[in-house]
């Protein structure tokens, strides 16, 4: 049976008389069953409107209830009134059914849609959520922030107006003035439009106004909304003081733009823009930076970058990635633009791919073009890679029966050099190649044996004459390899836990006949870095143009110790070496000079690696390349990291390459003073008072952050970062200095300051991307919220 609101109210008269409501599931006590208890739920949905809202029941409980059927009800003493998602608590409450009007006085508290309001008096038409609240204090549970107002007028369930409002995420227990507050003469909220408008708004920090405006518009949720974003302020040794004021334009649900006027005290005014779009089968981003008159360079400067990708026909894919800057000095003057991982080599390419399904075979047909812009510098020239214009290819792979597997790739490439880089000393031309292999894998769990036949064939036609005087040539090089390995393991114990230890020996034999290739072009081959992965490769060269002759055996063994309970690797040790049965004669250089390792010694260098996390809070790892010929270490990398808890990490790395470089890198994030939040506290959106050691003050915790890269060969610091972070619980301050080398005797220094008002916004330049990218183990002091527009953090 369904109770109407008045029928329920009439029935609640008996509650005031002391008769307990009956619950069939409650245990009997003295012949009577105990009264049902209401379970608080802060995630109750808002009541529906219309007829559905009118049918929602009212739940009213109090120490005393007086009611007139179909007219009204009055409740006193620990009153709790519920209807749909609205909960009202007070000392006294009267409800008029005809007007749907609730009047509450004395310690009034409303919980609705993740917000809590408290004050002395409330009048509210419940279903329409229309009325007013006098002198309320409010709290937004999702953000851990709130404030108070002189009055709140609830216009309807989605709109409200606050008069003389103050908002902050700092403690509001009366123990002291909040460190930051946002004050406004009037605030209008429209949740349907996801918009808030504050008139006469002033943002105060430590009592001083730092931002003000006659009218400020802001979003009410994480959803996107057009409007001005917080300004960014930075200091750069090349550009001076920089101010960026971005405007976000929410064009449509699948399109948006950011337009950011930019001002430099040294260079002048510019504009940074970004446009993003996303359709059902395509999407992309266009960035454009313009500096119409650079006063330092005395010219107009610009940079643009367009990324686009899409799908067609169900299994087709196409993409474009184009970038360009106006001049060679862009990478030095604007190092924070991050237009490329290699700032002096800007690549652009476009491709079309079509997946193929031929029986049991999978394949791919593709067309690609690739070009480069090289940013040269008189201090150090850059050798440009070849451009491919175009690259047309087909790949196939799959099973051939009887357990055989095959793969094949054929391509046509037109190799050219970027504009201004073709000085006549490097060959350009066409190449057609075929890479094919056939293999069969034998084995069971614990061992494998895989014989493999491979073919590398290429045909060339060059624009200039090759070393032998011809303009066309071809070659075909077969390779046979036999790969064998074991995976042995045993159960053991140690360090108070069950462990599993493995022993994994591996042998790889490779036989490739010698074929002279020094007269042929070398468009894309380089000696691979000598490491644990490349030493098991049949060819020591990358690319297609060079195939190393080989009659060699590679032997190595690795042992690992893992936690039997969770599979986490606790220890690893490996060693590997290659033995040459005959000297290697093919190199990647036309003059025959060996490239990479020594090729005329029977034994290659020995590679050793080790890593462990057995010692609590410590991670140790290292690799070493030892030369038997000179009985000395050729290369080594040794690192250690100590992380005993949240926001505590120190790492050190030593890198050595004989005759080339010797570097020491040190990075850290460490508390300097104050209380550090526990692991359980870290994930909360607002740890008000946690970092401050509780109470109402905003005294907090200081953290030191930094990284130094010191060149022992040059006796100087190359790149460095040094900064401090201050977490006051309701706000975070960051000051970071970064020095980037842009040449042998040049460097750019940037100063970044950021004020993060927890529950509101971040002001200033953003050093978080720099800290996360450069300090191993760096942890954010707060969990990041999703911003309306993505950033480069």
TrEMBL record:
Pfam families (UniProt xref): LptD (PF04453)
Principal subcellular localization: membrane
Keyword terms, alphabetized: Cell outer membrane, Membrane, Signal
Subcellular location: Cell outer membrane
Keyword Nucleus: no
Domain LptD C-terminal: 300-672
Keyword Signal belongs to the record: yes
Signal peptide residues on this chain, from the entry's feature table: 1-21
Disordered: annotated span: 24-51
Summary of subunit composition and partner proteins: Component of the lipopolysaccharide transport and assembly complex. Interacts with LptE and LptA.
PANTHER family according to UniProt: LPS-ASSEMBLY PROTEIN, LPS-ASSEMBLY PROTEIN LPTD
Functional note: Together with LptE, is involved in the assembly of lipopolysaccharide (LPS) at the surface of the outer membrane.
Family (UniProt): Belongs to the LptD family.
Protein name as it appears in the record: LPS-assembly protein LptD
Lineage: Bacteria, Pseudomonadati, Pseudomonadota, Betaproteobacteria, Burkholderiales
């Amino acid at each position: 049976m369904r109770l109407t609101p008045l029928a329920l109210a009439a029935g609640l008269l008996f509650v005031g008389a002391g008769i307990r409501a009956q619950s069939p599931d409650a245990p009997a006590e003295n012949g009577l069953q105990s009264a049902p208890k209401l379970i608080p739920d802060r995630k109750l949905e808002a009541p529906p409107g219309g007829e559905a809202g009118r049918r929602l029941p009212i739940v009213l409980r109090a120490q005393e209830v007086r009611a007139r059927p179909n007219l009204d009800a009055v409740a006193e003493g620990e009153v709790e009134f519920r209807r749909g998602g609205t909960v009202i608590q007070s000392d006294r409450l009267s409800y008029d059914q005809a007007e749907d009007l609730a009047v509450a006085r004395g310690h009034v508290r409303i919980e609705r849609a993740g917000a809590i309001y408290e004050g002395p008096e409330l009048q509210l038409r419940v279903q329409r959520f229309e009325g007013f609240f006098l002198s309320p204090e409010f709290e937004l549970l999702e953000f851990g922030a709130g404030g108070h107002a002189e009055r709140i007028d609830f216009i309807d369930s989605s709109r409200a107006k606050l008069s003389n409002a103050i908002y902050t995420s700092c403690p509001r227990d009366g123990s002291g003035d909040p460190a930051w507050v946002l004050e406004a003469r009037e605030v209008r909220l429209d949740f349907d439009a996801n918009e808030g408008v504050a008139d006469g708004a002033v943002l105060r920090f430590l009592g001083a106004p730092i931002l003000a405006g006659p009218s400020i518009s802001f979003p009410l949720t994480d959803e996107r909304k057009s409007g001005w974003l917080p300004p960014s302020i930075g200091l750069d040794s090349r550009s001076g003081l920089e101010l960026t004021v971005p405007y976000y334009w929410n064009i449509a649900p699948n399109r948006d733009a950011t337009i950011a006027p930019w001002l430099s005290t040294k260079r002048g005014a510019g504009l940074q823009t970004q446009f993003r779009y996303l359709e059902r089968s395509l999407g992309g981003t266009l960035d454009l930076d313009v500096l119409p008159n650079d006063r330092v360079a005395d010219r107009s400067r610009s940079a643009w970058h367009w990324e686009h990708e899409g799908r067609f026909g169900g299994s087709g894919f196409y993409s474009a990635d184009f970038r360009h800057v106006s001049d060679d000095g862009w990478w030095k003057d604007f190092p924070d633009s991050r237009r490329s991982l290699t700032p002096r080599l800007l690549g652009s390419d476009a491709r079309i791919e079509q997946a193929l399904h031929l029986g049991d075979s999978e394949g791919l047909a593709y067309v690609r073009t690739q070009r480069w812009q090289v940013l040269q510098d008189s201090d150090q020239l850059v050798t440009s890679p070849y451009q491919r214009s175009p690259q047309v290819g087909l790949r196939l792979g799959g099973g051939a029966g009887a357990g055989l597997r095959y793969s094949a790739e054929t391509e046509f490439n037109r190799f050219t050099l970027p504009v201004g880089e073709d000085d006549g000393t490097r060959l350009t031309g066409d190449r057609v190649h075929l890479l094919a292999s056939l293999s069969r894998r034998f084995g069971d769990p614990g061992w494998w044996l895989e014989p493999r036949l491979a073919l590398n064939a290429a045909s060339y036609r060059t624009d200039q004459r090759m070393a032998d005087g011809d303009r066309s040539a071809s070659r075909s090089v077969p390779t046979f390899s036999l790969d064998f390995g074991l995976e042995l393991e045993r159960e053991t114990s140690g360090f108070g836990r069950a462990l599993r230890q493995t022993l994994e020996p591996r042998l790889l034999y490779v036989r490739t006949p010698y074929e002279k290739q020094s007269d042929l072009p070398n468009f894309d081959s380089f000696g691979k870095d000598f490491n644990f992965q490349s030493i098991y490769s049949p060819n020591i060269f990358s690319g297609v143009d060079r195939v190393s002759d080989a009659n060699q055996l590679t032997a190595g063994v690795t042992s690992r110790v893992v936690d039997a309970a969770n599979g986490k690797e606790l220890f690893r040790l490996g060693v590997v070496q290659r033995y040459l049965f005959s000297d290697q004669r093919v190199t990647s250089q036309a003059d025959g000079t060996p490239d990479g390792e020594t090729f005329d010694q029977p034994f290659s260098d020995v590679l050793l690696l080790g890593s462990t996390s057995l010692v609590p809070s410590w991670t140790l790892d290292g690799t070493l390349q030892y030369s038997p010929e000179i009985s000395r270490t050729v290369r080594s990398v040794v690192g250690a990291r100590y992380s005993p808890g949240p926001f505590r990490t120190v790492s050190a790395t030593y890198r050595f390459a004989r005759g080339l470089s010797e570097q020491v890198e040190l990075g850290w994030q460490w508390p300097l003073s104050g209380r550090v939040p526990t692991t359980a506290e870290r994930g909360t959106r607002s740890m008000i008072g946690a970092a401050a050691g509780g109470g109402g003050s905003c005294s907090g915790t200081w953290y030191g952050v930094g990284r130094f890269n010191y060149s022992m060969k040059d006796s100087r610091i190359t790149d460095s970062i040094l900064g401090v972070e201050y977490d006051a619980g309701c706000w975070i301050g960051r000051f970071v200095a970064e020095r980037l080398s842009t040449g042998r005797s040049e460097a750019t220094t940037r100063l970044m300051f950021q004020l993060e008002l927890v529950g509101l916004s971040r002001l200033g330049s953003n050093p978080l991307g720099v800290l996360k990218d450069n300090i191993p183990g760096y942890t954010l002091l707060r969990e990041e919220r999703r911003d309306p527009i993505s950033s480069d953090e």
